[in-house]
Write a structure and sequence with these properties.
A hairpin with a 2-residue loop joins strand 12 and strand 13. This protein has one domain: Alkaline Phosphatase, subunit A. The protein is an alpha/beta fold. The protein has an eight-stranded mixed β-sheet with strand order 5-4-6-1-7-8-2-9, sandwiched between helices. The chain has a four-stranded antiparallel β-sheet with strand order 11-12-13-14, with helices on one face. The chain has eleven helices and 14 strands.
Length: 495
Protein backbone atom coordinates (compact mmCIF):
# COMPACT_ATOMS: atom_id res chain seq x y z
CA UNK A 1 0.00 0.00 0.00
CA UNK A 2 2.81 2.36 0.97
CA UNK A 3 4.58 1.48 -2.30
CA UNK A 4 1.46 2.24 -4.36
CA UNK A 5 0.96 5.51 -2.50
CA UNK A 6 4.57 6.49 -3.11
CA UNK A 7 4.30 5.63 -6.80
CA UNK A 8 1.07 7.58 -7.08
CA UNK A 9 2.72 10.56 -5.43
CA UNK A 10 5.65 10.39 -7.82
CA UNK A 11 3.32 10.24 -10.81
CA UNK A 12 1.39 13.26 -9.55
CA UNK A 13 4.57 15.21 -8.98
CA UNK A 14 5.81 14.31 -12.44
CA UNK A 15 2.54 15.42 -14.04
CA UNK A 16 2.68 18.68 -12.09
CA UNK A 17 6.24 19.27 -13.29
CA UNK A 18 5.17 18.62 -16.88
CA UNK A 19 2.24 20.98 -16.48
CA UNK A 20 4.45 23.70 -15.03
CA UNK A 21 6.99 23.23 -17.80
CA UNK A 22 4.24 23.42 -20.40
CA UNK A 23 2.90 26.58 -18.82
CA UNK A 24 6.34 28.12 -18.88
CA UNK A 25 6.66 27.37 -22.57
CA UNK A 26 3.35 28.97 -23.49
CA UNK A 27 4.02 31.38 -26.36
CA UNK A 28 3.97 35.03 -25.35
CA UNK A 29 1.11 37.29 -26.33
CA UNK A 30 1.83 40.44 -28.32
CA UNK A 31 0.15 43.83 -28.20
CA UNK A 32 1.35 46.41 -30.73
CA UNK A 33 -0.06 49.88 -30.06
CA UNK A 34 0.44 52.14 -33.07
CA UNK A 35 -0.38 55.84 -32.75
CA UNK A 36 -1.15 58.10 -35.69
CA UNK A 37 0.91 61.31 -36.05
CA UNK A 38 2.16 61.43 -32.46
CA UNK A 39 5.19 63.71 -32.26
CA UNK A 40 8.43 62.52 -30.71
CA UNK A 41 8.09 64.72 -27.62
CA UNK A 42 4.34 64.46 -27.01
CA UNK A 43 4.47 62.16 -23.98
CA UNK A 44 5.74 62.65 -20.47
CA UNK A 45 8.56 60.11 -20.74
CA UNK A 46 9.89 61.99 -23.78
CA UNK A 47 9.93 65.32 -21.96
CA UNK A 48 6.44 66.78 -22.36
CA UNK A 49 5.27 68.36 -19.10
CA UNK A 50 1.88 69.50 -20.39
CA UNK A 51 0.20 66.40 -21.83
CA UNK A 52 -0.61 63.87 -19.10
CA UNK A 53 0.45 60.34 -20.07
CA UNK A 54 0.98 58.46 -16.80
CA UNK A 55 0.19 55.00 -18.25
CA UNK A 56 2.53 55.40 -21.21
CA UNK A 57 5.19 56.84 -18.92
CA UNK A 58 4.82 53.80 -16.66
CA UNK A 59 5.12 51.52 -19.67
CA UNK A 60 8.40 53.22 -20.56
CA UNK A 61 9.56 52.99 -16.93
CA UNK A 62 8.81 49.27 -16.82
CA UNK A 63 10.32 48.46 -20.20
CA UNK A 64 12.87 49.64 -22.75
CA UNK A 65 12.82 53.02 -24.48
CA UNK A 66 14.53 53.45 -27.85
CA UNK A 67 15.75 57.03 -27.99
CA UNK A 68 16.64 56.85 -31.70
CA UNK A 69 13.58 55.11 -33.08
CA UNK A 70 12.34 55.84 -36.59
CA UNK A 71 9.23 55.29 -38.63
CA UNK A 72 9.96 53.89 -42.07
CA UNK A 73 8.14 56.67 -43.81
CA UNK A 74 6.99 60.23 -43.13
CA UNK A 75 3.32 59.30 -43.54
CA UNK A 76 0.82 56.64 -42.66
CA UNK A 77 0.41 53.82 -45.19
CA UNK A 78 4.07 53.01 -45.97
CA UNK A 79 4.98 53.07 -42.29
CA UNK A 80 2.24 50.55 -41.51
CA UNK A 81 3.24 48.42 -44.49
CA UNK A 82 6.81 48.26 -43.18
CA UNK A 83 5.70 47.16 -39.70
CA UNK A 84 3.42 44.40 -40.96
CA UNK A 85 5.76 43.16 -43.71
CA UNK A 86 9.18 43.70 -42.11
CA UNK A 87 10.24 45.09 -45.50
CA UNK A 88 11.31 48.45 -46.84
CA UNK A 89 9.07 50.40 -49.20
CA UNK A 90 10.80 49.45 -52.50
CA UNK A 91 9.87 45.80 -51.90
CA UNK A 92 6.19 46.35 -51.05
CA UNK A 93 5.63 49.21 -53.48
CA UNK A 94 3.88 51.17 -50.72
CA UNK A 95 5.84 54.40 -50.48
CA UNK A 96 3.21 57.07 -49.80
CA UNK A 97 -0.37 57.37 -48.56
CA UNK A 98 -2.47 57.80 -51.70
CA UNK A 99 -0.69 58.99 -54.79
CA UNK A 100 2.85 60.03 -55.49
CA UNK A 101 1.81 62.74 -57.91
CA UNK A 102 0.08 65.07 -55.49
CA UNK A 103 -0.15 68.73 -56.34
CA UNK A 104 -0.36 70.66 -59.55
CA UNK A 105 1.15 68.69 -62.45
CA UNK A 106 2.75 71.78 -63.97
CA UNK A 107 4.82 72.22 -60.81
CA UNK A 108 6.08 68.62 -60.64
CA UNK A 109 9.37 68.29 -62.44
CA UNK A 110 9.38 64.49 -62.31
CA UNK A 111 7.04 61.59 -62.95
CA UNK A 112 6.56 59.37 -59.93
CA UNK A 113 6.44 55.56 -60.04
CA UNK A 114 3.23 53.63 -59.48
CA UNK A 115 2.35 53.45 -55.80
CA UNK A 116 0.59 50.56 -54.10
CA UNK A 117 -2.11 51.68 -51.70
CA UNK A 118 -2.33 48.13 -50.37
CA UNK A 119 -0.05 45.34 -49.27
CA UNK A 120 0.68 42.96 -52.17
CA UNK A 121 -0.91 39.55 -51.68
CA UNK A 122 2.47 37.81 -51.79
CA UNK A 123 3.61 39.63 -48.65
CA UNK A 124 3.57 37.26 -45.70
CA UNK A 125 2.53 39.60 -42.93
CA UNK A 126 3.37 39.43 -39.26
CA UNK A 127 -0.29 38.63 -38.58
CA UNK A 128 -0.19 35.70 -41.02
CA UNK A 129 2.99 34.38 -39.44
CA UNK A 130 1.52 34.44 -35.94
CA UNK A 131 -1.88 33.16 -37.10
CA UNK A 132 -0.20 30.19 -38.77
CA UNK A 133 1.49 29.45 -35.44
CA UNK A 134 -1.75 29.25 -33.51
CA UNK A 135 -2.29 32.87 -32.50
CA UNK A 136 -5.65 34.62 -32.35
CA UNK A 137 -5.20 37.86 -34.27
CA UNK A 138 -7.09 41.14 -34.21
CA UNK A 139 -6.72 44.42 -36.07
CA UNK A 140 -8.53 47.15 -34.15
CA UNK A 141 -8.46 50.70 -35.47
CA UNK A 142 -6.78 52.16 -38.53
CA UNK A 143 -5.74 49.89 -41.43
CA UNK A 144 -5.05 52.22 -44.39
CA UNK A 145 -3.70 49.40 -46.58
CA UNK A 146 -6.51 48.47 -48.92
CA UNK A 147 -9.86 46.79 -48.57
CA UNK A 148 -11.74 43.75 -49.76
CA UNK A 149 -11.33 40.05 -49.15
CA UNK A 150 -7.67 39.93 -50.14
CA UNK A 151 -6.40 43.38 -49.21
CA UNK A 152 -8.28 44.13 -46.03
CA UNK A 153 -7.12 42.92 -42.59
CA UNK A 154 -9.03 39.63 -42.91
CA UNK A 155 -7.05 38.80 -46.06
CA UNK A 156 -3.74 39.64 -44.38
CA UNK A 157 -3.85 37.30 -41.40
CA UNK A 158 -6.29 38.92 -38.97
CA UNK A 159 -9.22 36.96 -37.55
CA UNK A 160 -10.98 40.14 -36.46
CA UNK A 161 -11.14 43.61 -37.94
CA UNK A 162 -12.84 46.41 -36.06
CA UNK A 163 -12.64 49.87 -37.52
CA UNK A 164 -10.09 49.21 -40.24
CA UNK A 165 -10.58 50.15 -43.90
CA UNK A 166 -8.57 51.77 -46.68
CA UNK A 167 -8.71 55.33 -45.35
CA UNK A 168 -8.82 57.49 -42.26
CA UNK A 169 -11.37 58.28 -39.59
CA UNK A 170 -13.57 60.48 -41.75
CA UNK A 171 -15.09 63.69 -40.44
CA UNK A 172 -15.49 62.90 -36.78
CA UNK A 173 -14.06 61.00 -33.82
CA UNK A 174 -17.52 61.12 -32.25
CA UNK A 175 -20.33 58.70 -33.10
CA UNK A 176 -22.08 58.23 -35.43
CA UNK A 177 -18.88 57.24 -37.19
CA UNK A 178 -18.14 57.00 -40.88
CA UNK A 179 -20.05 54.15 -42.54
CA UNK A 180 -16.71 52.81 -43.78
CA UNK A 181 -15.59 51.84 -40.26
CA UNK A 182 -16.58 48.16 -39.87
CA UNK A 183 -17.94 46.90 -36.57
CA UNK A 184 -18.59 50.37 -35.19
CA UNK A 185 -22.04 51.16 -36.48
CA UNK A 186 -24.89 51.68 -34.05
CA UNK A 187 -22.66 53.29 -31.43
CA UNK A 188 -24.45 55.67 -29.07
CA UNK A 189 -24.35 59.26 -30.25
CA UNK A 190 -21.32 61.12 -28.99
CA UNK A 191 -19.25 58.01 -28.20
CA UNK A 192 -15.55 58.80 -28.60
CA UNK A 193 -13.75 56.58 -31.09
CA UNK A 194 -10.50 56.22 -29.15
CA UNK A 195 -12.40 55.07 -26.06
CA UNK A 196 -14.38 52.60 -28.15
CA UNK A 197 -11.25 51.10 -29.71
CA UNK A 198 -9.69 50.76 -26.26
CA UNK A 199 -12.84 48.94 -25.11
CA UNK A 200 -12.79 46.58 -28.11
CA UNK A 201 -9.13 45.81 -27.42
CA UNK A 202 -9.83 44.80 -23.82
CA UNK A 203 -12.75 42.64 -25.01
CA UNK A 204 -10.42 40.81 -27.38
CA UNK A 205 -7.92 40.19 -24.58
CA UNK A 206 -10.60 38.85 -22.25
CA UNK A 207 -12.02 36.58 -24.95
CA UNK A 208 -8.65 35.09 -25.87
CA UNK A 209 -7.00 34.78 -22.47
CA UNK A 210 -6.66 31.02 -22.84
CA UNK A 211 -4.71 31.07 -26.11
CA UNK A 212 -1.83 33.12 -27.48
CA UNK A 213 -2.93 36.30 -29.22
CA UNK A 214 -1.64 39.15 -31.35
CA UNK A 215 -3.46 42.44 -30.86
CA UNK A 216 -2.67 45.21 -33.34
CA UNK A 217 -4.30 48.28 -31.77
CA UNK A 218 -3.83 50.92 -34.43
CA UNK A 219 -5.33 54.16 -33.15
CA UNK A 220 -6.64 56.85 -35.47
CA UNK A 221 -5.63 59.43 -32.87
CA UNK A 222 -4.08 61.91 -32.61
CA UNK A 223 -4.45 62.36 -36.37
CA UNK A 224 -6.54 65.21 -37.76
CA UNK A 225 -9.39 66.10 -37.19
CA UNK A 226 -8.24 67.30 -33.80
CA UNK A 227 -11.22 66.31 -31.63
CA UNK A 228 -11.65 65.05 -28.09
CA UNK A 229 -14.36 64.85 -25.41
CA UNK A 230 -15.25 68.38 -24.23
CA UNK A 231 -14.54 67.69 -20.54
CA UNK A 232 -10.97 66.60 -21.29
CA UNK A 233 -10.43 69.51 -23.65
CA UNK A 234 -11.67 71.96 -21.02
CA UNK A 235 -9.21 70.47 -18.54
CA UNK A 236 -6.29 71.29 -20.82
CA UNK A 237 -7.64 74.72 -21.73
CA UNK A 238 -7.73 75.53 -18.03
CA UNK A 239 -4.28 74.05 -17.57
CA UNK A 240 -2.85 76.17 -20.38
CA UNK A 241 -4.47 79.33 -19.06
CA UNK A 242 -3.11 78.61 -15.58
CA UNK A 243 0.37 77.87 -16.91
CA UNK A 244 0.44 81.04 -18.94
CA UNK A 245 -0.40 83.52 -16.21
CA UNK A 246 2.40 86.01 -15.57
CA UNK A 247 5.18 85.62 -14.70
CA UNK A 248 5.08 82.14 -16.27
CA UNK A 249 6.48 81.90 -19.77
CA UNK A 250 6.12 78.26 -20.67
CA UNK A 251 6.52 77.05 -24.22
CA UNK A 252 2.91 75.92 -24.33
CA UNK A 253 1.74 79.52 -24.13
CA UNK A 254 2.88 80.00 -27.70
CA UNK A 255 1.33 76.83 -29.07
CA UNK A 256 -1.61 76.74 -31.42
CA UNK A 257 -5.14 76.96 -30.01
CA UNK A 258 -5.47 73.33 -31.14
CA UNK A 259 -3.01 72.17 -28.50
CA UNK A 260 -5.50 71.52 -25.66
CA UNK A 261 -7.60 69.37 -28.03
CA UNK A 262 -4.50 67.54 -29.19
CA UNK A 263 -3.38 66.96 -25.59
CA UNK A 264 -6.82 65.59 -24.77
CA UNK A 265 -6.60 63.15 -27.69
CA UNK A 266 -3.29 61.83 -26.40
CA UNK A 267 -4.67 61.50 -22.86
CA UNK A 268 -7.50 59.25 -24.08
CA UNK A 269 -4.92 57.03 -25.78
CA UNK A 270 -3.07 56.91 -22.48
CA UNK A 271 -6.22 55.89 -20.63
CA UNK A 272 -6.50 52.97 -23.02
CA UNK A 273 -2.95 51.85 -22.23
CA UNK A 274 -3.93 51.78 -18.55
CA UNK A 275 -7.06 49.77 -19.36
CA UNK A 276 -5.13 47.24 -21.44
CA UNK A 277 -2.53 46.66 -18.74
CA UNK A 278 -5.27 46.32 -16.14
CA UNK A 279 -7.07 43.74 -18.31
CA UNK A 280 -3.86 41.79 -18.80
CA UNK A 281 -3.23 41.78 -15.05
CA UNK A 282 -6.80 40.76 -14.22
CA UNK A 283 -6.61 37.83 -16.64
CA UNK A 284 -3.21 36.72 -15.35
CA UNK A 285 -1.53 37.56 -18.66
CA UNK A 286 0.75 40.45 -17.71
CA UNK A 287 3.74 38.17 -17.13
CA UNK A 288 3.45 36.66 -20.60
CA UNK A 289 2.52 39.61 -22.81
CA UNK A 290 4.91 41.76 -24.82
CA UNK A 291 3.74 45.32 -25.45
CA UNK A 292 5.13 47.60 -28.17
CA UNK A 293 4.15 51.25 -28.53
CA UNK A 294 5.25 53.65 -31.28
CA UNK A 295 3.99 56.30 -33.68
CA UNK A 296 3.58 55.74 -37.41
CA UNK A 297 5.42 58.99 -38.24
CA UNK A 298 6.23 62.39 -36.78
CA UNK A 299 3.61 64.96 -35.92
CA UNK A 300 2.51 68.18 -37.58
CA UNK A 301 4.61 71.16 -36.55
CA UNK A 302 1.50 73.28 -36.00
CA UNK A 303 0.13 71.00 -33.34
CA UNK A 304 2.97 68.98 -31.79
CA UNK A 305 5.76 70.03 -29.47
CA UNK A 306 8.65 70.48 -31.95
CA UNK A 307 11.52 70.46 -29.40
CA UNK A 308 14.81 70.54 -31.25
CA UNK A 309 13.72 68.78 -34.45
CA UNK A 310 13.45 70.05 -37.98
CA UNK A 311 10.52 69.19 -40.22
CA UNK A 312 7.20 67.49 -39.63
CA UNK A 313 4.91 64.78 -40.94
CA UNK A 314 5.30 64.22 -44.70
CA UNK A 315 8.96 65.30 -44.58
CA UNK A 316 12.13 63.23 -44.37
CA UNK A 317 13.74 65.54 -41.84
CA UNK A 318 13.87 64.23 -38.28
CA UNK A 319 10.56 65.78 -37.23
CA UNK A 320 8.82 63.67 -39.87
CA UNK A 321 10.37 60.27 -39.11
CA UNK A 322 11.70 60.25 -35.50
CA UNK A 323 9.14 58.65 -33.20
CA UNK A 324 8.77 57.39 -29.64
CA UNK A 325 9.16 53.63 -29.24
CA UNK A 326 8.72 51.52 -26.10
CA UNK A 327 8.99 47.75 -25.63
CA UNK A 328 7.84 45.94 -22.52
CA UNK A 329 9.02 42.34 -22.25
CA UNK A 330 8.07 40.62 -18.98
CA UNK A 331 11.03 39.41 -16.98
CA UNK A 332 13.47 41.91 -18.43
CA UNK A 333 15.05 44.74 -16.49
CA UNK A 334 13.07 47.97 -16.23
CA UNK A 335 14.02 51.49 -17.18
CA UNK A 336 16.29 50.48 -20.07
CA UNK A 337 17.42 53.24 -22.44
CA UNK A 338 18.70 52.19 -25.84
CA UNK A 339 20.37 54.78 -28.07
CA UNK A 340 20.89 52.53 -31.10
CA UNK A 341 18.91 53.56 -34.22
CA UNK A 342 16.00 51.18 -34.87
CA UNK A 343 12.90 51.37 -37.05
CA UNK A 344 9.47 49.90 -37.68
CA UNK A 345 10.82 47.09 -39.89
CA UNK A 346 12.52 45.69 -36.78
CA UNK A 347 9.20 44.86 -35.11
CA UNK A 348 8.47 41.81 -37.31
CA UNK A 349 11.75 39.90 -36.78
CA UNK A 350 11.83 40.86 -33.09
CA UNK A 351 8.32 39.61 -32.39
CA UNK A 352 9.09 36.41 -34.30
CA UNK A 353 12.24 35.88 -32.24
CA UNK A 354 10.39 36.42 -28.97
CA UNK A 355 7.74 33.94 -30.13
CA UNK A 356 10.42 31.38 -30.99
CA UNK A 357 9.54 31.38 -34.69
CA UNK A 358 12.32 30.84 -37.23
CA UNK A 359 12.18 33.46 -40.01
CA UNK A 360 15.58 32.79 -41.60
CA UNK A 361 13.93 31.71 -44.86
CA UNK A 362 11.91 34.93 -45.10
CA UNK A 363 12.93 38.14 -46.80
CA UNK A 364 12.99 40.61 -43.90
CA UNK A 365 14.83 43.91 -43.92
CA UNK A 366 14.57 44.49 -40.19
CA UNK A 367 16.81 43.19 -37.42
CA UNK A 368 15.97 41.23 -34.31
CA UNK A 369 16.45 43.83 -31.57
CA UNK A 370 15.29 41.56 -28.74
CA UNK A 371 18.79 41.43 -27.13
CA UNK A 372 18.50 45.16 -26.43
CA UNK A 373 15.32 44.57 -24.46
CA UNK A 374 17.34 43.01 -21.65
CA UNK A 375 19.83 45.86 -21.66
CA UNK A 376 22.66 43.68 -22.93
CA UNK A 377 22.18 43.75 -26.65
CA UNK A 378 24.60 44.46 -29.44
CA UNK A 379 23.87 44.99 -33.09
CA UNK A 380 26.25 44.82 -35.99
CA UNK A 381 26.72 48.26 -37.54
CA UNK A 382 24.04 48.86 -40.12
CA UNK A 383 22.37 51.60 -42.09
CA UNK A 384 18.70 52.57 -42.10
CA UNK A 385 16.99 53.59 -45.33
CA UNK A 386 13.96 55.51 -46.56
CA UNK A 387 12.42 55.53 -50.03
CA UNK A 388 10.01 58.31 -50.95
CA UNK A 389 9.85 58.84 -54.74
CA UNK A 390 6.78 61.05 -54.35
CA UNK A 391 5.44 64.55 -53.87
CA UNK A 392 3.75 65.41 -50.60
CA UNK A 393 1.53 68.37 -49.88
CA UNK A 394 1.30 70.49 -46.80
CA UNK A 395 -0.31 73.89 -46.78
CA UNK A 396 1.48 75.02 -43.63
CA UNK A 397 4.92 75.02 -45.25
CA UNK A 398 5.76 78.46 -46.61
CA UNK A 399 7.27 79.38 -49.93
CA UNK A 400 10.66 80.56 -48.77
CA UNK A 401 14.17 79.50 -47.88
CA UNK A 402 14.46 78.31 -44.29
CA UNK A 403 17.39 79.06 -41.99
CA UNK A 404 19.22 75.99 -43.21
CA UNK A 405 19.14 77.21 -46.80
CA UNK A 406 16.69 74.56 -47.93
CA UNK A 407 13.94 75.44 -50.34
CA UNK A 408 10.44 74.95 -48.99
CA UNK A 409 7.31 75.22 -51.06
CA UNK A 410 3.64 75.79 -50.31
CA UNK A 411 2.66 72.97 -52.65
CA UNK A 412 5.33 70.44 -51.83
CA UNK A 413 6.45 69.77 -48.29
CA UNK A 414 8.49 66.88 -49.64
CA UNK A 415 9.75 66.11 -53.13
CA UNK A 416 11.07 62.71 -54.36
CA UNK A 417 14.04 61.59 -52.29
CA UNK A 418 15.80 58.63 -50.72
CA UNK A 419 17.59 58.70 -47.37
CA UNK A 420 20.35 56.78 -45.65
CA UNK A 421 21.36 56.96 -41.97
CA UNK A 422 24.60 55.41 -40.71
CA UNK A 423 26.78 56.16 -37.68
CA UNK A 424 24.94 59.40 -37.02
CA UNK A 425 25.38 60.66 -40.60
CA UNK A 426 22.20 61.26 -42.57
CA UNK A 427 22.24 61.59 -46.36
CA UNK A 428 19.24 62.93 -48.31
CA UNK A 429 19.44 62.17 -52.02
CA UNK A 430 16.93 64.16 -54.06
CA UNK A 431 15.84 62.84 -57.42
CA UNK A 432 15.94 66.39 -58.76
CA UNK A 433 18.65 68.61 -57.31
CA UNK A 434 16.93 71.81 -58.36
CA UNK A 435 13.66 71.27 -56.52
CA UNK A 436 14.93 71.36 -52.95
CA UNK A 437 18.19 72.10 -51.19
CA UNK A 438 18.46 75.56 -52.76
CA UNK A 439 20.68 74.09 -55.46
CA UNK A 440 22.86 72.27 -52.94
CA UNK A 441 21.44 68.77 -53.13
CA UNK A 442 22.20 66.28 -51.79
CA UNK A 443 22.17 67.04 -48.07
CA UNK A 444 24.37 65.50 -45.41
CA UNK A 445 23.94 66.05 -41.68
CA UNK A 446 25.73 64.77 -38.59
CA UNK A 447 22.78 64.34 -36.25
CA UNK A 448 24.60 64.04 -32.89
CA UNK A 449 25.85 67.62 -33.34
CA UNK A 450 23.05 68.89 -35.54
CA UNK A 451 19.65 67.37 -34.63
CA UNK A 452 17.81 70.23 -36.35
CA UNK A 453 19.63 69.50 -39.62
CA UNK A 454 20.74 73.09 -40.14
CA UNK A 455 24.27 72.47 -41.42
CA UNK A 456 24.55 70.66 -44.74
CA UNK A 457 28.05 69.14 -44.70
CA UNK A 458 28.01 67.39 -48.07
CA UNK A 459 30.53 69.82 -49.54
CA UNK A 460 32.90 69.69 -46.55
CA UNK A 461 32.56 65.91 -46.19
CA UNK A 462 32.68 65.13 -49.89
CA UNK A 463 34.32 61.70 -49.63
CA UNK A 464 31.94 60.55 -46.91
CA UNK A 465 28.99 61.90 -48.84
CA UNK A 466 30.08 60.22 -52.08
CA UNK A 467 30.64 56.90 -50.30
CA UNK A 468 27.19 57.07 -48.72
CA UNK A 469 25.67 58.07 -52.05
CA UNK A 470 27.11 54.95 -53.69
CA UNK A 471 25.89 52.78 -50.82
CA UNK A 472 22.41 54.31 -50.99
CA UNK A 473 22.22 53.76 -54.73
CA UNK A 474 23.38 50.17 -54.27
CA UNK A 475 20.59 49.66 -51.75
CA UNK A 476 18.03 51.13 -54.16
CA UNK A 477 19.24 48.79 -56.88
CA UNK A 478 19.11 45.71 -54.65
CA UNK A 479 15.60 46.40 -53.33
CA UNK A 480 14.01 47.49 -56.61
CA UNK A 481 13.86 51.19 -55.86
CA UNK A 482 14.18 53.72 -58.65
CA UNK A 483 17.63 55.17 -59.27
CA UNK A 484 16.18 57.99 -61.34
CA UNK A 485 12.77 59.33 -62.28
CA UNK A 486 11.67 60.46 -65.76
CA UNK A 487 10.94 64.09 -66.52
CA UNK A 488 7.34 65.23 -66.35
CA UNK A 489 6.37 66.57 -69.80
CA UNK A 490 3.67 68.74 -68.20
CA UNK A 491 6.19 70.55 -66.00
CA UNK A 492 6.26 74.33 -66.47
CA UNK A 493 9.22 76.13 -64.90
CA UNK A 494 8.33 79.17 -62.85
CA UNK A 495 8.93 82.44 -64.72
Amino acid sequence: MKYRYAMLLLVCLALQAVAETTAQKKPPNFVVILLDDLGLHDTGFMGNDFIETPAIDQLAHDGATFTQAYANAPNCAPSRAAILSGQYAPRTGVYTMMSGDMGESARRKLQTPKNNVFLPEQVYTLAELLHDHGYATAQIGKWNLGHGAARGPEGQGFDINIGGHRGGVGQSFHAPYSKELPGLQGAPAGEYLTDRLNHEATKFINKNKNRPFFLYLSHYAPHFPIQAPPDTVKKYQTKRDTFCRPPAALKYCDMTPYYPEYAAMVEHIDRGVAQLRAALAADGLADNTVIVLMSDNGGYAWVRDPQALSGQKSQLYEGGIRVPMVWLVPGNASGIKVDVPVSGVDIYPTVAALAGIDTRQQLLDGADISPFLSGKGKLSPRALYWYFPAYALDSVVDDSDDQAGRRTNADFSQVPAAVMLRDGWKLIRYYSSSEQGNGNAPELYFLPDDPQEKHNRFASEKKRGDDMMRELESWLHSTGGALSLPANPAFQPSP
